[in-house]
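Researcher: Let's do a round of design. I'm pasting the structure tokens now; please hold your answer until I've finished.
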């Protein structure tokens, strides 16, 4: 997996063997050619070229502009790169596909500088809503506000001000991480939450000094309100429900293509949602390739039904289902990540356990029996240790080589130094999202203390150097789906104030691009068809306005997607 030094070879040397005028034999005229640019392939056998030819949805040939131009026929689409960079399509390594679409349809709270602005946004929505209609939003993060709300409990607001402006509309506002939520009085009433409601396993109803619920709900506690919301949504007609699903999918696909994402690893969907994906894929209405993790089903259901859902490259390579998503802990920002020692800023807590470890271990056994991969969310150092232990026991009990199964830990954000080498030793993939480090960096030392943060937080370099496969993504809609900020974070670890968050853990630019292409393909068992511009693989290509491999650091974020190509078809072109 480690062959990134090839990209520093001189282009003149790399192209020497293909500079002749003879066109390569690709079995007929090309359907599409890209000419006159810098084509970085991520393939060590042919790292760079000037041009690429596409035929039948696959990469057909690479070479100098003159020889690739000769493959064109009268019906060939010709794209002049004019020196721009063409790379394999970005693979989103961990996101929530339908959530990306849903985020376009609700209040975007990440734009709010403080709680008062969020209350104002809800008030504006109330003015246009009918009585009883749910108002939803996502993206708030108390650590990023410019002031602590008045009457705050544990730095989280009290619902009174929000409830006052929304007495007839239930309100549910999700934390940016998805691991907490805030509800108004009516939403809590519909959910049956009062001062006597006990905390559910793996969750916390935040209460004031009098024992009354403040509206803040950590981890599984937010499901109480979500279920009330789901009951209301279930009263809609089948046509309304279907129309919303199709709209969410379309919006998610448009956002993906606009950001250069040609493949999306969806971190958890139910069997019902997978049925919807399968139907859309078979109808040719899934514009982005999906790799879907099964989530929200019991072990008994999965043991019985997984064989019916095993799909590899279904519908022309647009849908693959061969993995299971589990969640052992919560998010660091919401004090839900499971730690070996208590939080520095909340000594009364070491985090929360979401899914019981024994239940996840049973999932691993079932997955191995059905040929499925297990991808477990773990953020805290104890959460990561527990899941590494689960995987190690599961591999030993089944008598298998763990590296062959490619089990993953999603996020792997905070790892005890003793556990860092275990990823490589066990063959466990660290499925990370680099943009989390620079988004969370300003407040991570406050929660963990400097020593724990320095030695174990977002340690991509340490993981890579000990032999682990490290992937990349955004966890969208937790963060923006755009790969460029996450790539920038990977190579600079630069915080908004210009300082760098433990920069010794940064990756090189080539390693960062690899983490977003070949590593993600490997993590999904798709390295034979994705991740590099290699003849025979899918012609999934992105053209950028800046060369992110060579421009100065401060210009990387200026790079934009000019063209996105999926299966040899132009799916997005800037300005159109």
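Researcher: That's everything. Go ahead.
Model: Designed sequence:
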């Amino acid at each position: 997996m480690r062959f990134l030094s090839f990209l520093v070879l001189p282009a003149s040397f790399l192209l020497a063997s293909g500079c002749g005028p003879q066109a390569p034999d690709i079995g007929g005229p090309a359907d599409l050619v890209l000419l006159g640019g810098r084509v970085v392939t991520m393939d060590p056998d042919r790292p760079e070229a000037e041009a690429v030819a596409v035929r039948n949805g696959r990469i057909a040939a690479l070479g100098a502009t003159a020889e690739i131009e000769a493959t064109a026929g009268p019906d060939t689409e010709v794209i002049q790169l004019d020196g721009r960079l063409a790379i394999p399509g970005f693979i989103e390594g961990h996101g929530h596909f339908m959530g990306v679409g849903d985020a376009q349809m609700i209040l975007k709270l990440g734009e709010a500088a403080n709680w008062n602005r969020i209350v104002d946004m809800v008030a504006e929505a109330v003015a246009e809503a009918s009585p009883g209609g749910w108002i939803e939003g996502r993206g708030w993060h108390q650590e990023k506000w410019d002031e602590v709300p008045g009457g705050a409990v544990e730095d989280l607001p009290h619902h009174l001000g929000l409830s006052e402006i929304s007495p007839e509309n239930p309100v549910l506002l999700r934390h940016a991480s998805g691991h907490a939520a805030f509800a108004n009085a009516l939403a809590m009433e519909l959910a049956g939450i009062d001062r006597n409601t006990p905390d559910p396993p793996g969750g916390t109803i935040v209460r004031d000094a009098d024992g009354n619920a403040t509206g803040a709900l950590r981890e599984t506690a937010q499901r109480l309100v979500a279920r009330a919301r789901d009951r209301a949504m279930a009263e809609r007609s089948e046509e309304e429900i279907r129309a919303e699903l199709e709209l969410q999918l379309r919006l998610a696909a448009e956002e993906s293509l606009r950001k250069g994402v040609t493949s999306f690893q969806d971190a958890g969907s139910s069997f019902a949602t997978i049925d919807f994906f399968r139907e859309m894929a078979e109808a040719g209405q899934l514009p982005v390739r999906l790799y879907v993790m099964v989530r929200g089903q019991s072990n008994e259901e999965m043991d019985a039904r997984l064989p019916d859902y095993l799909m590899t490259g279904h519908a022309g390579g647009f849908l693959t289902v061969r993995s299971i998503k589990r969640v052992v802990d919560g998010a660091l920002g919401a004090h839900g990540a499971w730690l070996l020692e208590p939080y520095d800023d909340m000594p009364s807590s070491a985090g929360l356990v979401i899914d019981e470890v024994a239940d996840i271990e049973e999932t691993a056994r079932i997955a191995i029996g059905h040929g499925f991969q297990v991808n477990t969310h773990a953020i805290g150092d104890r959460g990561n240790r527990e899941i590494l232990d689960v995987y190690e026991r599961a591999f030993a009990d089944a008598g298998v080589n763990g590296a062959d199964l490619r089990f993953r830990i999603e996020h792997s954000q905070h790892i005890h130094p003793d556990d860092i080498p275990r990823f490589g030793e066990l063959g466990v993939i660290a499925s990370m999202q680099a943009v989390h480090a620079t988004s969370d960096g300003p407040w991570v030392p406050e929660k963990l203390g400097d020593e724990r943060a320095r030695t174990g937080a977002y340690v991509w370099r340490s993981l890579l150097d000990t032999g682990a496969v490290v992937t990349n993504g955004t966890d969208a809609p937790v963060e923006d789906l755009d790969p460029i900020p996450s790539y920038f974070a990977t190579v600079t670890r630069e915080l908004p104030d210009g300082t760098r968050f433990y920069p010794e853990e940064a990756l090189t630019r080539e390693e960062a691009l690899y983490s977003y292409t070949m590593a993600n393909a490997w993590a999904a068992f798709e390295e034979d068809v994705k991740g590099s511009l290699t003849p025979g693989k899918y012609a999934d290509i992105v053209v950028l306005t800046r060369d992110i491999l060579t421009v100065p650091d401060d210009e990387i974020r200026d790079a934009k997607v000019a063209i996105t190509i999926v299966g040899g078809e132009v799916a997005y072109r800037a300005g159109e």
